[in-house]
Design brief:
The structure holds 2 protein chains of 2 kinds. Chain A is mostly helical. Among the domains of chain A are: about 40 residues; about 45 residues. The longest helix of chain A has about 60 residues. Chain B is an alpha/beta fold. Chain B has one domain: L-arginine/glycine Amidinotransferase, Chain A. In chain B, the strands form 6 sheets. Chain B has a 4-stranded mixed sheet, covered by helices on one side. Chain B starts with a helix and ends with a strand. Classes of the chains: A mainly alpha, B alpha/beta. At the A-B interface, α1, α3, β1 and α4 of A face α1, β2, α2, β3 and β4 of B. β1 of chain A pairs antiparallel with β4 of chain B.
């Protein structure tokens, strides 16, 4: 192989390599173009966020997110209060019944004591009569 | 000689071309750093009181109002009809998730953001099983037409923080993946480096007791790094307990009172119908101080490790409660005394001035100490209140706020 032939072969190889590199850069550009299409249009992430449909008034600076379902929490509390109220009325009821029971027991006690007194008096009278 | 030279040149040139064609050269893909230029877009999630025991509408309002007016906030919601905005604000956009899903208030964890030129890519772990949080990146990607990449690796965003150059990953993440793929830590580290496009620094040398490093580590501009100091936090709290016991009692009581949003609510039923009681915080400051002192050694070990790695370490006070998990009768993890950290922050550079967005917990002395420390470090401090209840579940500002883009991402 003489020098001229070697030079030509080398030049051909180099040309092929350069062509490959150029082709890669072109195809990379194309590949990136689809994924970065929006970025190239200036359509950055921020822009895309701004483009979201839900638009609200522009000037307000303070933001207040109100959770209306706290009402449900109130309902939970109301339910607890209702249940507590029901328990309380049951306790009052039982308490009332206990008072009545107490009165009845005391009345019974008084009646028993009175009966015992009467029986004792009867016994005394019977003894004296004898 | 001439022929040999030409042939040699041709071979070398061909080899160079082949190498260029076949190599996966630096594509410029890099995980979004926690430091850098101004924050542009963030993601938060809002949960309603009727779907979640940890509702956060007030906290979200505080975050939105605490960030600069030009920051766009994407708000993930699964119960949109529960919410209304008293005052409109065009920088908050709702992204609705299916009603039947349950989400947490922490969008930091189920994905990471990787940038490639102006292109934003959301990278998800192989699995993420906290509630239905794995749907967060799916819906974000769909709504914003972002590329979504599912990784084979297992990770949580809270255990990954990123400085200007390196990305810091907690030991547990490396260990779990090492076990999962039966690979050495070095191989796993290499895989993360490829995924995130930055060198990885593994934080810690043994299993983490604090599950997410973003609670205790903040990369700062340059080669500085801020690491929590739970001994200092405990000392400040001990002083407060001695000098202002009434203020501490009031803080403890407020933690309990605000847990369910109202002081008179002590128990509510969760979605499964099981009762949930608010945690006991009153009289728990002293045991928490002791727990915080006990946690200090592991933080010192990390500080030493970072110093050895060539970073300039600064310390920030923190009060670390006893992190031994406590479970309810139904097996759910119970909330705790608040994890008071001033490392779980957002940072940005505004025209050359470093700015820190700093969570506040309502414990004045410690809040002030945290803010003063950041000011001493040269930061303009912008405080955001209302993190007490979130901190009782172990999360703070960074956990609640995922930065999606900065004006000029690193």
């Amino acid at each position: 192989m003489n020098a001229k032939q070697a030079l030509l072969t080398s030049a051909a190889v180099c040309m092929i390599c350069l062509a490959c590199l150029l082709a890669q850069s072109v195809f990379t550009e194309l590949a990136n173009a689809s994924s970065l299409d929006s970025a190239k249009k200036g359509n950055t992430l921020k822009q895309r966020v701004e483009d979201l449909e839900v638009m609200q008034e522009e000037d307000a600076k303070e933001f207040f997110l109100v959770d209306n379902s706290l009402g449900d929490l109130d309902l939970r509390v109301l339910d607890l209060e209702k249940r507590a109220g029901a328990r309380e009325s049951r306790v009052n009821d039982i308490d009332g019944r206990l008072i009545t029971h107490g009165r009845t027991i005391r009345a019974n006690h008084r009646w028993v004591v009175k009966n015992i007194k009467e029986i004792r008096a009867d016994i005394r009278r019977l003894k004296n009569g004898n | 000689m001439k022929t040999i030279s030409i042939t040699l040149f041709t071979i070398l040139f061909t080899a160079f071309c082949i190498a260029r064609l076949t190599s996966n050269h630096d594509s410029g893909e890099r995980i979004l750093a926690d430091v850098g230029s101004e924050i542009e877009v963030v993601v938060c999630s809002a949960t309603s009181a009727r779907t979640s025991t940890l509702r956060n509408s007030e906290l979200v309002s505080n975050i939105v109002n605490g960030l600069p007016d030009d920051v766009q906030v994407l708000l993930l919601v699964n119960d949109l009809k529960s919410f209304e905005t008293k005052s409109s604000n065009n920088r908050v956009k709702f992204i609705e998730l299916p009603e039947e899903t349950g989400i947490s208030i922490w969008p930091q964890d189920p994905f990471v953001v990787v940038n490639f030129q102006n292109h934003t890519r959301l990278v998800t772990p192989c699995v993420f099983d906290r509630e239905d949080d794995h749907i967060m990146p799916l819906h974000l990607a769909e709504k914003l037409n972002l590329e979504l990449v599912s990784s084979d690796l297992h990770f949580e965003g809270g255990n990954i923080v990123c400085g200007e150059e390196a990305v810091f990953i907690g030991f547990n993440t490396i260990a779990v993946n090492s076990d999962l793929f039966n690979e050495t830590s070095a191989v796993i580290k290499e895989r993360f480096e490829k995924l995130f496009g930055r060198p990885v620094v593994v934080v810690g040398e043994s299993m983490q007791e604090i599950s997410h490093i973003d609670l205790i580590i903040t990369p700062l501009p340059g080669d500085h790094i801020a690491i929590a100091d739970s001994r200092l936090g405990a000392s400040i709290m001990q002083q407060a307990l001695l000098k202002e016991p009434a203020a501490i009692r009031s803080f403890e009581q407020e933690c309990e009172n605000q847990f369910f949003g109202r002081a008179d609510i002590t128990t509510i039923s969760d979605l499964s119908g099981e009762s949930m009681h608010r945690p006991t915080v009153v009289h728990q400051t002293q045991p928490t101080i002791e727990a915080s002192i006990a946690a200090a050694d592991q933080l010192d070990v990390i500080a030493d490790q970072m110093t050895r790695a060539g970073y300039k370490v600064v310390r920030i006070p923190a009060l670390v409660p006893d992190l031994t998990p406590k479970f309810s009768e139904s097996g759910k993890e119970k909330p705790n005394y608040p994890f008071i950290t001033y490392n779980n922050v957002l940072l940005e550079n505004q025209n050359g001035t470093p700015v820190v967005y700093l969570p506040q917990y309502g414990c004045k002395r410690l809040d002030n100490a945290g803010a003063s420390r950041w000011a001493e470090l040269g930061f303009r401090v912008k405080t955001i209140p209302g993190f007490t209840t979130s901190a009782m579940y172990g999360g703070s500002l960074r956990c609640c706020t995922k930065v999606l883009s900065r004006k000029q991402s690193l």
